[in-house]
Design brief:
It is built from five helices and eight strands; from the N terminus they run H-E-H-E-E-H-E-H-E-E-E-H-E. Strands 1, 2, 3, 4, 5, 6, 7 and 8 form an eight-stranded mixed beta sheet that branches. A hairpin with a 2-residue loop joins strand 2 and strand 3. It has one domain: YbaK protein (Alpha-Beta Complex), CATH 3.90.960. The chain is globular and about 40 Å long. By secondary structure, the protein is an alpha/beta fold. The longest helix has 9 residues.
C-alpha cells in the first residue's frame, strides 16, 4: 500500500491525524483546491541537492525554492534542484510527486518554511495523489525536528 511507511510511523508514535480523500491532483496548489485545504496549510516537499547530499525543503503550496538562500545557508554554490532520478528509489512506497514531508523517514535532512509553523494544522500528501493527511503542526515538528527557515528573505 502506498504511504504505508508514513501511516505506520504516525500510529507507532501515537499521533492523531485525519486522512482526507480527494480527486486526483498532481500539483500542490491544485491538490489544496480540490481537497478544500487552505494553501498556507498545504505542505509540499521539494528535494534539492547540496553537494552530494539530498535535502528535503518543505514549504507552502504557493512558495518556490530560493536557491540563493540555500547557498547562503549551506555556504556553498553547489546547490540545485534534484532530478527524479536522484531520489526516486528513496520513495518506493510513494507515488512520484506525492511524497510526504518526512525527510527523517527517507534519510534526508529537512528544512521547513516558517510559514507552515503559523497554523495549528499541517496538511500534506500521504504517498498518493488522492489522499492527504492533516495533523497538528506541533506533532509534525516533534517527529521530524526540521530546521525552520524564512524563505521570504532575499539575498
Amino acid at each position: 500500500m502506498k504511504g504505508e511507511k508514513l501511516l505506520d510511523y504516525l500510529v507507532k508514535n501515537n499521533v492523531k491525524f485525519e486522512i482526507i480523500h480527494h480527486p486526483v491532483a498532481f500539483s500542490s496548489t491544485k491538490t489544496a483546491q480540490v481537497a478544500h485545504v487552505h494553501g498556507r496549510e498545504m505542505a509540499k516537499p521539494v528535494i534539492v541537492k547540496i553537494g552530494n547530499k539530498l535535502v528535503m525543503v518543505v514549504m507552502t503550496a504557493n512558495q518556490k525554492v530560493n536557491l540563493s538562500l540555500l547557498k547562503a545557508l549551506y555556504q556553498t554554490d553547489d546547490v540545485e534542484l534534484a532530478s527524479e532520478t536522484d531520489f526516486i528509489r528513496r520513495f518506493g512506497d510513494c507515488e512520484m510527486g506525492a511524497m510526504p514531508p518526512f525527510g527523517n523517514l527517507y534519510g534526508m535532512d529537512e528544512l521547513v518554511s516558517d510559514d507552515l509553523t503559523k497554523d495549528e494544522a499541517i496538511v500534506f500528501n500521504a504517498g498518493t495523489h488522492t489522499e492527504l493527511i492533516r495533523m497538528k503542526y506541533r506533532d509534525f515538528e516533534n517527529l521530524v525536528h526540521p530546521r525552520i527557515v524564512n524563505f521570504k528573505i532575499s539575498l
